[in-house]
Design goal:
Length: 203
């Protein structure tokens, strides 16, 4: 695995910026602040400001919620490139952290959509936000009868809302919270299992 990973480094499009260190047990390299360790049978990929010596910590990303271990090189490098996007763009960092928190609270879904959205008058790449929709939901194994969506903005803020399982045009109830951890707290404190009983005013 170590030799194969070393060879794979040279297939990375911008490998000229990568330095690696190898010994008899492992190989290590850093790709845009993402740390990759290759061992005999596995590859670990993560971001860690302590190991990187980064003075400014990322708000949402750390080793605990970014570490993944792989048994094949292709999946490891795909995740490395994804994580490099997460560590360099606040809306992707928010997206990654929110999905991590959903796993922690056992917020499960079978429908998921991802897209980039923006206003008609300012639809440049840098100004678009991320929109994710979640459907067929259960929280801690309890089925709930609503869907939800979240928009991650370029300034790190979020807009989270609920809508019916079979919505009419533009039905939604907007959560008043804009911080991810407070949104998660709101979800956990919501003691209803259907859209009609959510105690918010429909927009």
């Amino acid at each position: 695995m170590i030799e194969k990973l070393k060879n794979a480094i040279f297939n990375i499009s911008d490998f000229e910026y990568i330095n690696f260190v190898q010994n008899s047990k492992s190989i290590k390299f850093i790709y845009h602040d993402v740390i990759v360790y290759g061992y005999k049978d596995s590859i670990s990929v993560f971001y860690d400001d302590a190991e990187m010596g980064v003075l400014t910590q990322l708000k949402f990303i750390n080793k605990e919620n970014s570490l993944k271990t792989f048994s094949d090189i292709s999946n490891a490098l795909d995740y490395m490139k994804y994580l490099s996007k997460v560590t360099s763009d606040v809306k992707y960092a928010s997206y990654h952290y929110f999905l991590h928190r959903l796993k922690e609270i056992e917020f499960n879904y079978t429908h998921f959509s991802f897209g980039l959205v923006g206003s008609y008058h300012n639809y440049s790449k840098d100004n678009r936000s991320i929109r994710c929709d979640f459907g067929d939901l259960s929280i801690m194994d309890k089925k709930v009868r609503y869907n939800c969506l979240i928009i991650f903005n370029n300034d790190g803020s979020c807009k989270f809302s609920f809508y019916p399982e079979e919505p009419a045009w533009n039905e939604e109830k907007i959560c008043p919270k804009r911080d991810i951890d407070k949104i998660i707290e709101y979800i956990l404190n919501l003691k209803v299992d259907n859209y009609e009983d959510i105690p918010l005013i429909e927009s």
